[in-house]
Amino acid sequence: MIRQVSKLSLLLLGTAAISSCGNSSKKAQGADSTMTKTETTTTVSPPKENAPASTEFKAVPDSAILGKNSEALVKVIGAKSISLQDAEGKSTGSELTLNLSITNKSKLDNKIFFTVQSNDARLELDNSTSIPSSGSTGTSNPEPESTGQAEWKFNLPAGTQPKKLNFFLDGTRVSVSLEKK
After folding, report:
1. What is the pLDDT of residues 24-67, one digit of tens each?
2. Which domain holds residue 88?
């Protein structure tokens, strides 16, 4: 009988322990559900870039046909001017970069070859002066029935803007106007 009483008391004690653990977990869950969370959102403005000012231009018309036999098609794909400054922040001018697509429209059997040279082109400025190119990269002499890409650069004096680009080839001259976008 003592054994039965001790077994029963152990069983009751175990049940009480289990039920008390269950109640404490419910109390803990209830305590968590009453907590409030506060969130603070801070908006950070993006850092200002330390990049030079730039201006986009468009060519009107965007293409020109050159040559006595109209064999060269030059298209201005993009034009962008970047302001240049010295160490003290004083403007020293700008650099205009022209991206060109040059197409040789002659047939393969005619085999007409040409070069649209950047040093032959002239950039007319708003102060009525003309300047030559300061350099070029890419292909400005494509094979017949093919297209090449070229990049021409012009160094503009301070306080001037490009007005017109003049192309020359084989005794022909074509001009395209440059306007701010």
Report:
1. 544 445 545 555 556 666 666 565 566 778 999 999 999 999 99
2. 54-180
Is 100 inside a domain boundary? yes
Tell me, yes or no, whether 151 lies in a domain: yes
Q: Which of 136, 134, 179, 135 is nearest to 161 (CA)?
A: 179
CATH number of the domain encompassing residue 87: 2.60.40
Task: Output the CA angle 114-99-90, nearest 5 degrees.
Answer: 125
- CB-CB neighbours of 81 under 10 Å: 23
Global confidence as pTM: 0.69
Output phi, psi for 97, to 5 deg.
-115, 125
Instruction: Name the residue with tokens 């009483």.
Output: 5
Q: Work out how many domains the chain is built from and give that number.
A: 1
